[in-house]
Amino acid sequence: MPKRIHEIKNFNVGTITTPSDADLPEEAANYSLNINAVAEDGVLKGSNKDIIIPVASSYSASTTSSGNYNNGASTIDVEDSGELSGVEDGGTGKITFIDTLGKRQILNYTKSGVGGDTLIVSKWHGSGGITTDTPVYQYTKSDIKSDKISLINDSGTYRAVIFDDADNKFKTVDNIDGDRPTSSNLSSTAETHSVLPTMVNNNKEVHIGMGSGANDTPKWIGKIGHGQYGESAPSGLQLTNAKLIQPNTLPDIYKPVTDNTHIYGFEYASNTIWKLKISDYSLVKKSMIIRDDATTASLTAICMGSDGDLWVIDTSTIDYKVSEGVYQYTADSSAITGNTLTTLGTWMRIDANSLEIKKSGLLQFKKTNFACNLPYWPLVDDVSSNADANNHWIITDLIEVANNLWISGAVGQPGSNTNNANWATHLKGKEYLFLKPTSAFSNSGTVTLLGDRGGQASSNYRESVGYGLYSQPLNGHARGGFKWHDHENQEPLYCKIPKLNLIEISGTSNVGIIIEPHYSKLHEGLSRDSNDGLCIDGTGDGTYVEIGTIIVEVDIAMYSNSSQQDDSIRPAQEVGGGAIAFKGGIHYITEGGNDLSYDGYTEGLACAHGKIVYTVPNSSTSTSSDIKYKNSPSTISGNTNSSIQAMAVASTTYDINKGKPCLLDNGSNVDIHMFAGDGNGRWMSSTNTGNSIGADIFTVRFQSELELKLTNTTAPSSHESGKKYYYKASYIYDGYQESPLGDPTIITSTGKSVDIEVILRTTSSLSKRISGIALYMAESAGNAETPTGFYRYLTKLDLNNTFTTVNEDLSGNPDWGSYRSRIFNHNGSVSASYEARTGISEILEDTIVNYSLSTDLNSHLFVAGCSHEKIDDASNYLFKSRPYNYSMFNWIKEFLVLPIYPTALQSFNNRLFALDDNSILRIEPNTLYIESATSGIGCFGQESILANEFGMCFADKNGIYLHDGQRANDISLPIKRGDSTYSWENILLDFIPKVGFDSYTKSFVVVFKASNSTYNAWQYNIPRRRWDLQKLFHVNGGSLETAVPKDFVINKNNKLIWNINGEFYQVYGDKNNFKSWDWHSKQITIGKSTQDKSFTNFNLIGSPSGTLGTQISVNLDDSNASEIVNDGASGYNNFKLSPTKGKKVQWRLISQTGTIDALGTTYRLLKTNAGASN
């Protein structure tokens, strides 16, 4: 048979590891390593080496090279080695410079000679040399582990945003593509996260999801382009929470209560509960209370329960209308018959951790044998002629003692937070204090408070506390033992109850209710004289005492009296002859001068550790609070008294506005936490470690950032006189995103324009992202207590130097510091609603969710793997942001509940793809519906998917896929099986494969962990549809890096930068040096697998390297053969084998550094013996 030649000259198929070589094209390799996929056709050569990008926190002052040195030189001289800071003679270091190839070069050296300027080079990390006068810098590598990385283009300077999972901090590398990249920390402390952060770039900012845990707060890192108040914009990247915080971050807390770890409270008649952390004086959360009927609450009473949860009363369900037996509240009580019901509101148990409703039900009042005797309005005796139908008895205070819930209230308008003077309760013969065992509230449902005077027999004639304290003269006696007296005539004593009125009586299961005298002369506008006072002996003829406040102890025994058939509490009991004995007792607090009566103005009240603290209006400045205190009475028996004291601090006054105290028992005394504000919530505290209180110095802890002060002017306006107008503000973030609306500030119009003074406090802590303030207004119908329309836009105020600095009274305690102020005059004109402008409901208080996965499409941010405190389980929700506003989510409307729990989220081909480990959902992004679902194909995780103009490449345990927008194509078939180390079916899954893209080779790069525990990359070249195995992270002059690869980023030149072992490698970045490579041909059978051949000669065209038989070899029938150079041949380009007979041969090129153009095999087919079996 004649000789023939078999040639391989087009090495463009790549590697195919399929077990059967018969299925391989002739040009394919069944194993290769580091083959350059984009080399010219027909050439085998190595991939470009990688380069290291030097990154340091700082660099030394520069020196320069003293001469020209080629790459690899053993020494170089510099002008002044002293500039290479921190390296002593004989010490080692690294320098960086721009080499002769224009690349950032790194050089390891030892400094030689005492004071010498010669550097002994131990390693060159690049390809080029150095020329005379080239600047040289000493640096120490920043050891940054980039577990996640993104890139911000800051007007041509590229800044890398990095999350380092080793210390849980965000970091940055500025100028990562330029001269001397510099690293710094963005996080000051470790960040909280439950997954590796997910990052999406938008303009000059990165939006970051930290996971779905309750504390996994999304972050924002970016360049802020504006300053505040005329100052310069902050330099560098800024890290902050992504959440757009609404203004007024602390309301006027009505009654703060505590579990000694947190403080809870709400603004009176609002719908939101606030939870504050005592240890660091921070806001933990706030929660809008929404009932099952989707309406918001109007909260008017709160206390801590013995189980650590909250009792709350919502009076938005109060009902005074006659309908199917529901009670009509009327001035004429004779019109009411027995067995009628009044709905007083809704009781709720609120989980103290989540601030969510655990259970709830209606709370009703029922009279059985007598006309209804709830308190009424106004404070005059003739109720029928002066009643105001808009005013009712409202539950305003609660306390739980010994597994009993005590309920009290005051008279006013539901939903109103007007002056306390209009909220005190007239007590003539009224039932205003109730008790129910906590067991009555064990399940959700209606709880009814029974009210019944009972029989009229003298032996058990029980009256309300009101009868015991208000009495007209009767036969010269003041029934109940109290009588108002003046020297002209005997007049009855009117008493009132403030909104906050309940305290514990130390050492008992009883409670005390605070009652204040209201003198008839004062009520009628008359003046008091020195002979006016209170008779306490029950006769009307005894000593008259000037009093400030009365504490009535209510004995639990009165409730347990078996003859009493209701829940109302009456401590007074007639014992004969018109005199009244109190089961419990009366304690009155005496006070001299003009301060002896607060006339219903008690603003705050707290009791703990045997101490009582009140706040009352200052006699000269009603907006300021005086603080009163005394020891709490223990069991009260009969009539007792003590004096109250005023807190005072030396050389100053208290700067506290409408204070509400909260006392924390610290074991030896109480810490006083005070909440104050009139539209501007403030929190201050004082720690008491001694045995007494009284001269407390308060420290500012927290205060609202923004306050609106409204003033009617004389200028014309479209406002309607007598109508209420509601103003709110929002913050403008980043120049274009808008926060939720803050709390309302209300004004009753005079028909003129309104000056809106915008006050910004705590300006030093104001988010630097805030660039302005938007103002909105809503109005009511007539004199309604709530807005009847939407909040509509007025104007935007840029946060510039038009806001002037105002210093508050710095002499008072606490020192609230200065604030910024600007006035905007509003003439009544409005434009679009908040919802129309932002696409967000005006009732939302936060516009972001916690999330684990993210991608963007058509200028929207899509997130998955979510949580939100208002959603029970959002782990399979997909949310969509507002267009261009990646921190604004209308999460109550724009979402999709997925049938899977996604592991990856990716946008591609104008569609959104959600994947788990076994399925793919294609989602239409505009209306959020699932167009198609594919089973049997999935994705490891977000690291394992990447999309670009060539397709969406992703990987799961079964293969690697390229999605074209319609279907997923398995492109991994050539490498799926066959190689026990590198084929896809043998990869180790303790490392999640990472999918990147190299634009130089136009290849997807899939980094994985092989079965031998090494890290490698399968590279899929798009134009040639070929696979090549690569060892990445190898620089010229260095060894192969074998540590765990971290994350990657594609830089401004579309180069792939990968972080590993604290270094940043530009993959294939060295254009002058190449990696050594391997290439194994398939088993060459010349199409005759069973026929023997004589392989007579082997030829290589190109410049191979190494040793014949070692780096260049041919296997014969899977066995080693001896390679022999032919006589007269040059090197190993022409050789033969011994033996020569076989059925197949295989070329093996190992650790090559040159190039190969073609491989030739000369052979002759041998004759087949007759009868021989194939």
Question: How would you describe this protein?
Answer:
- The protein is mainly beta.
- A hairpin with a 5-residue loop joins β50 and β51 (682-686).
- Strands 4, 5, 6, 7, 8, 9 and 10 form a 7-stranded antiparallel beta sheet that branches. Strands 1, 83, 86, 87, 88 and 90 form a 6-stranded antiparallel beta sheet that branches.
- The longest helix has 5 residues, at 465-469.
Kindly list the characteristics that best describe this protein.
6-stranded antiparallel beta sheet; elongated; mainly beta; 2% helix; 5 helices; 7-stranded antiparallel beta sheet; 90 strands; 1174 residues
How many helical elements?
A: 5
Oligomer: single chain
- What is the terminal separation in angstroms? 19 Å
Spans with pLDDT under 50 lasting ≥5 residues? Answer: 321-338, 369-389, 418-429, 453-492, 519-546, 557-584, 592-600
Helical/strand content category: mainly beta
What form results from the Cα inertia axes? elongated
Helical residue percent? Answer: under 10%
In total, the number of strands is 90
Return Rg in Å.
Answer: 42 Å
Mean pLDDT: 81
Q: Could you give a quick summary of the protein structure above?
A:
The protein is mainly beta. The protein is built from 5 helices and 90 strands. The strands form 21 sheets. Strands 4, 5, 6, 7, 8, 9 and 10 form a 7-stranded antiparallel sheet that branches. Strands 1, 83, 86, 87, 88 and 90 form a 6-stranded antiparallel sheet that branches.
